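[job 4471] stage=fold_predict status=RUNNING
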Amino acid sequence: ANVVITDREQVYPYLKHVLKDNLKDKDNVKYSVKILDWTRDLHKFPQKYDIILGADVIYVEEVFDALLATLQHLSHDETKIYLSCKIRYDRDTRFLDMVQKHYTLQEVLHDKDKDIKIFLCKKIKILS
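[job 4471] inference complete, writing structure tokens
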């Protein structure tokens, strides 16, 4: 599998360094690290992905529309999107409500000790 790992520009150098250290003995792991800003430059990611993992991405309400647009841009009809998050505020639930307009949303894990939930999202198929 080819893995693309993304984060904001501010985190990119640190992320690249950490991955290099952690994967230095894993020659069989193919990965690339890229900067992804949900509010721009989606054209730099023309590929659709089979699996998308989003960890702690639900945090700033002002970019919820951009986050959802990014998920839509990167996914195809069969993509599985896993979102790992804490539901801290009402706004977090509002984002999940936005997601449910386009994707099914299934809670697949709830770590009660850490209060972290993982949701599986699959694109809603419209029958014609």
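[job 4471] summary: The chain has two domains: 1-37, 47-128.
[job 4471] exit 0
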